[in-house]
Amino acid sequence: MNRKQTILAVDDEPRNLKILRLSLKDEWGLKTAASGEEALEILKTDAPDVILLDIMMPGLDGYEICRRIRQTPKLEFTKVILVSGKALLEERLKGYEVGADDYMTKPFIPDELLAKVKVFMRLNLVEQQLKDLTLSLDEKVRVRTQQLADAEAKLVNSAKMSVLGEMAGGIAHEINTPLGVIMLVIGQVQDLLLEQPINVDVLLKLTARIEKTTRKIGEIVQGLRTFSRDSGRDNFETKSLKEIIDSTLNLCAEKFKYSDVALTIESIPENLMIECRASQLSQVFLNLLNNACDAVEKRNEKWIKVSVQQNEKFVKIRVMDSGPGIPIEVRDKLFQPFFTTKDIGKGTGLGLSISKGLIEAHHGSLLIDSNSVNTCFEIEVPKKQFIDGAV
Known about the structure:
Elements: E1 6-10, H1 14-24, E2 29-33, H2 36-43, E3 50-54, H3 62-70, E4 79-84, H4 89-97, E5 102-105, H5 110-194, H6 200-228, E6 237-240, H7 241-259, E7 262-265, E8 273-276, H8 278-296, E9 303-310, E10 314-321, H9 328-331, H10 351-361, E11 365-368, E12 376-382
Parallel strand pairs: 1-2, 1-3, 3-4, 4-5, 7-9
Antiparallel strand pairs: 6-8, 9-10, 10-12, 11-12
Helix pairs in contact: 5-6, 5-7, 5-8, 6-7, 7-8, 8-10
């Protein structure tokens, strides 16, 4: 049930308050105040829809009361009609300046007063309904935006797991091989310990090999952890580009060996740092490397080259393979979701589309180098993320 709308009439003349009460009838709830100070006390707890406010009162006058009303958030919808025995233009203009909605002169014409109050009551109600609708729409937009963000994160993660699944065999082999080495060396250590005297030099060499091999497994596991984590809500952090690329290579090196693809990584400066989400860049690199490997594995000449260029503000990473380039008719479709040139059952068609989105989220670009004789993708990202329109 809707609440009854209310009016506060403020006037230091009891006769005027009586006339107002008779004019307004009982259509709305009416409270009265005989001074500005009394009105402010009432407004501490009440938020009337309309205030009829006399200008000339002892103490706080109508202008000051109106000014304070406009500084009170809970009274944002309250309509103020200033009342005066004078009809001077200066008074009306000053009233509008302090926030009044309308102006009336005494003596009142009851029908005019009633009509004005009805208009402002409707206006007050409409404004409140609009605010409620806006808040409702804002909440719906917020919820829908969050739903879309969650769906996008799931899609990105799905594509990530798809690429990781294609690498799973190679990663398992990459871990099993050093584990086999460790087991073999442990056997050698055990045999050595049974000999007298113990050859300490040989023992140190064997334990050093175990340490090196264990560290290699640790690098692969750390690469998996970095790659597979949900990074959608990560903050941008300053990371070494070389470490990101090396970590990614740990996940696909075995696939290149198995496919007999020669991988060349041009020297990357140790101190080349970029502000990024490392997991997302790793996902893009792995997707491009995986695609390149699939594209050349059946060619006579099989190679992939990764190079890095930089200037003061940007870093460019090129992933080139021995393929003959992307046909023009395919090039425009390549970054569209679900488009793929791979065989059925191999690839989701989401990798490049998602990779492009991840790079653009870094204020960068992912493009095909149409001038290259071979297939070449270029990633360009800023070293520092944009702040207030600057890099």
